[in-house]
Amino acid sequence: MEDRLHMDNGLVPQKIVSVHLQDSTLKEVKDQASNKQAQILEPKPELSLEIKPEQDGMEHVGRDDPKALGEEPKQRRGSASGSEPAGDSDRGGGPVEHYHLHLSSCHECLELENSTIESVKFASAENIPDLPYDYSSSLESAADETSPEREGRRVNLTGKAPNILLYVGSDSQEALGRFHEVRSVLADCVDIDSYILYHLLEDSALRDPWMENCLLLVIATRESIPEDLYQKFMAYLSQGGKVLGLSSFFTFGGFQVTSKGALQKTVQNLVFSKADQSEVKLKLSVLSSGCRYQEGPVRLSPGRLQGHLENEDKDRVIVHVPFGTCGGEAVLCQVHLELPPSSNIVQTAEDFNLLKSSDFRRYEVLREILTTLGLSCDMKQVPALTPLYLLLAAEEIRDPLMQWLGKHVDSEGEIKSGQLSLRFVSSYVSEVEITPSCIPVVTNMEAFSSEHFSLEIYRQNLQTKQLGKVILFAEVTPTTMRLLDGLMFQTPQEMGLIAIAARQTEGKGRGGNAWLSPVGCALSTVLISIPLRSQLGQRIPFVQHLMSVAVVEAVRSIPEYQDINLRVKWPNDIYYSDLMKIGGVLVNSTLMGETFYILIGCGFNVTNSNPTICINDLVTEYNKQHKAELKPLRADYLIARVVTVLEKLIEEFQDKGPNSVLPLYYRYWVHSGQQVHLGSAEGPKVSIVGLDDSGFLQVHQEGGEVVTVHPDGNSFDMLRNLILPKRR
């Protein structure tokens, strides 16, 4: 709950555990709480047993366009960006009485404390993306047959954005500082649009299913590695994992780390042999850790990279060690490639000058190592932020919108929220600085032009009553979710706010997780409001499922595109088949009085083949396999269709409950007959059978009982380590 939930006494819960209570226990709790104020929610209506037939496809707009579906003549194809995960809330089945928990965002606390309403986030979705290589996966052969081949890039089998995990030792301030040092230098080396760097804590390394979600494991600690953790790291290598050791005692394959005290913290010459066997001599440029590698009695064939000090003993300080039969390999270093010349362990000004003079070569060595381990080190500059443009999908709302703005902006033309100020201006000049906390909004639509977003295409394909009518568009913005924060409680519902971007620089997932947002993704955040006392208001976790289905249906309901194999993975991912992640959903919900105000962020790959796969890759492959001529799709076209489908699904859910949309959800989901383990990888196997009334997974146990399971809270894969609610 991210510190947003408080009990009556002000304590912040550290963990929320679901329980099933017997009737006697419920009565006891009720009796104990009888002297406290209670809020009685209306009993939920019985679910209709009538299953609605599958939806007809939406009317196809733009199918005869010359280049791409939804594309204007003489306009270049483009798109938007990637987003993420969603929200979940526990509800028990059947009518019950609910008693007050004080939320930091609740209306009562607002009145009592004169505080500002904060978002109540219903935690849900998996959002640290899985990684490209799973050498032990049985899907490899299937991928060879079914996954689109993209010349010049390695096929990503698990299909999620690649993570680099950094292990820096025990949880301490010193380790945290080391993490920031290592993260900083790696971020300077790799393509920031292709990788996310995460801190791997010891507990998480032992407990969570990180191996299949890790493209590169970086070990950067001088501490000895506990035996159980060492075995985990070796298991990762045996499955084809890649390891970079930076001044660590981690080693294997017959190599031993031996100390040579005279070298410690001294500047030394390094002779480094690159993968093509050419030598790069770094003059007086590396800081020694004081250790070297020596071969033991058992030897493995050395890899392509090598590095030794230019001294009498030619001490080996960089070794490249292949491991196993699945492609595992490690590059182990005993020179401080991770430390800048300004590090506090650099002892003299002379040493600083020597290291500084060859710092470029240090990066050259690091990039060579990372490239050998399969990473892309193509450097891309972070783009500058751009202004927002206020665009309208329907001209009839222009006058009401401008009147509303006139009443709500301050004397400087701004609307401010806790994190962001939007300054409304008629035009923009480049001299005006744009920062993540202050962004100009241009209200003159005639000044708008973009190769990534066509307002005309969006208008033609938006067929909603309310949603998506008022657009805030940016070429480059920190995150679309933040753009609507200051407007979500104030704008009239009929205005239907949506934020769209071509690229994000600070894409967010659940908690503190990052989200990759390169050009080519369709990125949007749409605002909806849901009455608390309604079918969907009593089942808010279903919002993420509706959005996921809306994305898939928006593509597969286009005539002739029904066989493009887009699917839904619980709880909030959009997948190509069951192989690769192509998008995700993030839902932030705020309950204010009797209304949920909900921001739904959604991003899915349309034209960008990296870092996983995109919809147009699937279209191209479909054309090749079936000798078809389906046109590539555009992001603006698909965003409009997604919002249209979403509004339709919400209306059906509000009218008839979950059973009105579940047939469509099950038609597209990837989990039919799938088996998962409870508790851990060694836990009992169960089969997924569907969703319960709150949107959680239901599984079938061997004994014949169908039960609901919940995620255990790990950040790597929501389908791993599922747990049964405790019973009392």
Automatic annotation (TrEMBL):
Record's superkingdom?
Eukaryota
Q: Where in the cell is it found?
A: Cytoplasm; Mitochondrion
* GO MF assignments: ATP binding; biotin binding; biotin--[biotin carboxyl-carrier protein] ligase activity; enzyme binding
The GO cellular component terms are: chromatin; cytosol; mitochondrion; nuclear lamina; nuclear matrix
Query: What is the reaction catalyzed?
Result: apo-[methylmalonyl-CoA:pyruvate carboxytransferase] + biotin + ATP = holo-[methylmalonyl-CoA:pyruvate carboxytransferase] + AMP + diphosphate + H(+); biotin + L-lysyl-[protein] + ATP = N(6)-biotinyl-L-lysyl-[protein] + AMP + diphosphate + H(+); apo-[propionyl-CoA:carbon-dioxide ligase (ADP-forming)] + biotin + ATP = holo-[propionyl-CoA:carbon-dioxide ligase (ADP-forming)] + AMP + diphosphate + H(+); apo-[3-methylcrotonoyl-CoA:carbon-dioxide ligase (ADP-forming)] + biotin + ATP = holo-[3-methylcrotonoyl-CoA:carbon-dioxide ligase (ADP-forming)] + AMP + diphosphate + H(+)
Keyword annotations: ATP-binding, Cytoplasm, Ligase, Mitochondrion, Multifunctional enzyme, Nucleotide-binding, Phosphoprotein
Q: Name one GO biological process term.
A: post-translational protein modification
UniProt-listed InterPro entries: aa-tRNA-synth_II/BPL/LPL (IPR045864), Biotin_CoA_COase_ligase (IPR004408), BPL_C (IPR003142), BPL_LPL_catalytic (IPR004143)
BPL/LPL catalytic domain residues: 456-654
The UniProt entry, under Pfam families, shows: BPL_C, BPL_LplA_LipB
PROSITE patterns linked to this entry: BPL_LPL_CATALYTIC
Similarity comment: family membership: Belongs to the biotin--protein ligase family.
The protein depicted here goes by the name Biotin--protein ligase
Per UniProt, what is the name of the gene that codes for the protein in this document? HLCS
